[in-house]
Amino acid sequence: MAMQQEWANKDYYGDLGVSSSASAADIKKAYRKLARENHPDSNPGNKAAEEKFKRVAEAYDVVGDEEKRKEYDQFKSMIGSGGFGGFGGRFGGGGGAGFPGGFRTTTQTDFDAADFDDLFGGGAGGQAGDGGLGDILGGFFNRGSSASRSARPSRGADVETEIALDFREAAKGTTFPVELTGEAPCTTCHGSGSRTGKTHACEVCAGSGFIRESSGAFGMARPCTNCGGSGEVIEDPCPTCDGTGTVRRTRSITVRIPAGVVDGQKVRLAGQGEAGPNGTPSGDLFVHVQVRPDPVFTRSGDDLEITVPVSFGDLALGGTVTVPTLDKAVKVKVPAGTPNGRTLRVKGRGIERKSGAAGDLLVTVEVTVPSDGALDANAMSALRTYAQAEKDSGFNPRAGWAGAR
């Protein structure tokens, strides 16, 4: 439910600069363009660009996924058409920010999915599966509208952790050991919660998983405390986990970090979160990646950037310089007469993309002037001879300069 609450005030298509009818290809193209333009590495210290980058990434995570986009479109369509209006009272009859028709943002303590069942077709007055608003909202909250549905959690809890990687580890991809403490399947009952698997319908809720109560004009429902919302009672609970199917323990897993992750990126590992109760699926693990700066490399999108110190002679006469890459060093040709600060491009030596191709290595050459006393007498004499010859040839480094007199 929290996900749909977040969606209510978000315009993901607007964040990506596309229409709601845009194709998947157009959405992907818009995302790549905006992510490249607003990437923190390309806009150091620019908080506005950083926030834009985060909004674009969040938007693409939803409308770039076919199933999430469909659910988002349905939810926004209902809000836009006033589909939640007309109930007043408990749902904020005066209207709320971003919710036409009187619907307002709520917290879990205001109501849960069971309340919607009673209001829109799942309670005593409604017919399950009648295609009404109860069915639609049931889908939004990951619940069907069948009378036999359960209030028990359908999966384990998601888990979040943080790791710090060196720049080159993030660029090349790596594996990283992570130690997690939380709910894991019970090894005695293999997660079922029962020694033999015997269960019977809960006597308190008659197998529905809900206790229904009358509250004013509406029927209210809450998960049954006797069966934990499952609708079933285990006849012979496992002595190790007391029938829950899970035990709290510490486990170590190896996380594979794909090549090219950026600082602040979140990597999702499906099914690596906490175990679900009584054999239900595990939640997901979300790994927040922090990337340490590198003393040599920076990056711009999939391109690596490096500044190489050179001498005046290297640029004036031309030659080759040896520069590092993420793998082995390569030689870069410097044409004669190369100006200071010029950037030379080495194809395919940048960050590897998902397609298998890679970005480029951008090598900027920067002249280093010898400090006073660094040259011996012969070098100084030769330098003075060159300076005089330079003047005699008519070369003027300030020719055409706006400040020349």
UniProtKB/TrEMBL annotation:
Q: What GO MF annotations does this protein's record show?
A: ATP binding; heat shock protein binding; unfolded protein binding; zinc ion binding
A Pfam family annotated for this UniProt entry = DnaJ_C
Where, in residue numbers, are the CXXCXGXG motif repeats? 186-193, 202-209, 224-231, 238-245
Q: Name its cellular compartments.
A: Cytoplasm
Q: Where are the zinc fingers (CR-type)?
A: 173-250
Sorted alphabetically, the Gene Ontology cellular component annotations on this record are: cytoplasm
Looking at the record, the residues that make up the J domain are 11-76
GO annotation (BP), single = DNA replication
Q: Which cofactor does this sequence's record say it needs?
A: Zn(2+)
| InterPro entries assigned | DnaJ, DnaJ_C, DnaJ_domain, HSP40/DnaJ_pept-bd, HSP_DnaJ_Cys-rich_dom, HSP_DnaJ_Cys-rich_dom_sf, J_dom_sf
Coarse class of the protein's main subcellular location: cytoplasm
Where, in this chain's numbering, is Zn(2+) 1 bound? 186, 189, 238, 241
Domain remarks in the Swiss-Prot or TrEMBL record = The J domain is necessary and sufficient to stimulate DnaK ATPase activity. Zinc center 1 plays an important role in the autonomous, DnaK-independent chaperone activity of DnaJ. Zinc center 2 is essential for interaction with DnaK and for DnaJ activity.
Q: What does this gene product do? A: Participates actively in the response to hyperosmotic and heat shock by preventing the aggregation of stress-denatured proteins and by disaggregating proteins, also in an autonomous, DnaK-independent fashion. Unfolded proteins bind initially to DnaJ; upon interaction with the DnaJ-bound protein, DnaK hydrolyzes its bound ATP, resulting in the formation of a stable complex. GrpE releases ADP from DnaK; ATP binding to DnaK triggers the release of the substrate protein, thus completing the reaction cycle.
Entry similarity comment:
Belongs to the DnaJ family.
This chain belongs to which protein, by name?
Chaperone protein DnaJ
Report the source organism.
Corynebacterium glaucum
